[in-house]
Design brief:
Blueprint lengths: L5 H6 L1 H24 L15 H15 L5 H14 L7 H23 L14 H15 L3 H17 L3 H9 L15
Helix pairs in contact: 2-3, 2-4, 3-6, 5-6, 5-7, 6-7
Length: 191
Amino acid sequence: RPSFPPRRSSDLEPVGLELIGVGVCLASVLLAAALVTLAPEGSDQPFRNVAGSLGRAVAGALTRAVGLGAWMFPVFGVLWGLALLRGRRPRLWGRRVLLLPVSAALLGALAALLLGRQCPPGLERSGPGGYVGVALATGLFSVLGKAAGLAVLVGFLGTLRLLVDIRLRTLLARWTGDGDTAVLPEAEEDE
């Protein structure tokens, strides 16, 4: 069993982060392929269910739950995987993992409010917002009326800001040309 000096063993950590990043990216691309090729069982579409029966089951469950919000999972999976590949240590990982389904549900509710009964192919059964999105949109619409769309949009943008970890002050400084142009924070230790 090899023993590395303390300095040498700490050099191996980025390799582990990169391997996790590759795994997260591959899983996210596989989920995206499952979502794109999602077809009901027994369908005779030419490219159906590329990810197999497991991919169909996962993609079907996500689209039934949150509709178009299901796309949040592969998009952020690829973004987080690429960040790990670049050697950025995950910050506030638990918060982000918990906020991703909330953000997907809010996107589903926004899709349900904006699209109503107009369903993209494959979402006819549960609607563009999925069951969770429709329930959330219906509840908010009964309480807030037409302001429900604005409330859902503000909530979605708020969770999106926390997921991406963009610092608004530096984003505004970049747009106005003042000061620091780094929008995303540098790699930092877990808080």
